[in-house]
Amino acid sequence: LAVHRTYKQRQKQLQSMENAPKDEVRHVTEYVQRASRFIESIRQRRKTMRAIGEYLVRHQNGFVATGRYEFLKPLTRSKMARDLGIHESTVSRATMSKFVQLANGEMVGFEVFFKPALRVQKMIAEILATENPGNPLSDEQIAEILKSKGVSVARRTVNKYRDRGKLLSSRKRRSA
Predict the structure, then answer these.
(1) How far apart are CA 25 and CA 17, in angstroms?
(2) pLDDT (tens digit, 9 = 90+) per residue, 17-27?
(3) What is the phi/psi pair of residue 67, to 5°?
(4) What is the mean pLDDT of the chain?
(5) Partner of 67 for a Cys bridge, out of 34, 59, 104, 123, CB 3.0 to 4.6 A?
(6) CA distance 96 to 167
(7) Angle, helix 139-148 to helix 116-129, in steps of 10 degrees
(8) Residue 17, Cβ neighbours under 10 Å: how many?
(9) Residue 176: which pLDDT band, with cuts at 50, 70 and 90?
(10) Is 112:118 a contact under the CB 8 Å cutoff?
């Protein structure tokens, strides 16, 4: 994007004229300034989105490259903002209602990167999807499997996340 050169040329002409029409000077100056500010805002937004994207590729590479939630690391908007040298609200506004396409083709909202519990919830769902239906895993067993994968959570936490994901208890999964 750029300010049309006709407007820029006219602005220069008006500035060099002694008795330039004040209304035209005001009109041209205002619109050139508004267009310039708009273009600069878009450049700044593009720069911010690029910085956020590069940050995520560096710090969440496993998840971005595979789409596997087990590789998703805890991250907050405030940490990202500190690391990038921008305000937390800038990160929030820049990522709100926006999506990113992962290497596996999946589209996910930027909020996925800022929900630390999501990783564990998805891992629980994956474990339950591959369990033996005739012998469902208890919350304690799920917690042990997660621990073997490097995620230390209590049985109560497994229960809470399983409930949030609307996943049935082992007793109900056995009878289903």
Answers:
(1) 10
(2) 989 899 999 99
(3) 80, 5
(4) 92
(5) 104
(6) 28
(7) 110
(8) 11
(9) low
(10) yes
Both tokens of residue 161? 């996340």
As given in the structure block, the two tokens for residue 132 are 């033996």
Helix (H, G, I), strand (E, B) or coil at 100: strand
End-to-end Cα spacing for the chain: 59
Q: How far is residue 29's CA from residue 35's CA, in Å, rounded to a whole number?
A: 10
User: Measured between alpha carbons, how far is 74 from 117 in angstroms, rounded to an integer?
Assistant: 8
The residue to which tokens 């994207």 are assigned = 53
Dihedral class, residue 138 (left if φ above 0, else alpha if ψ from -120 to 50, else beta): beta
Q: Which residues contact 120 (CB under 8 A, 6 or more apart)?
A: 146, 151, 153, 157, 161
Amino acid 13 reads Q
Mean pLDDT of 29-40: 95
Amino acid at position 79, single letter: K
Cα gap 108→101, rounded to integer Å: 6
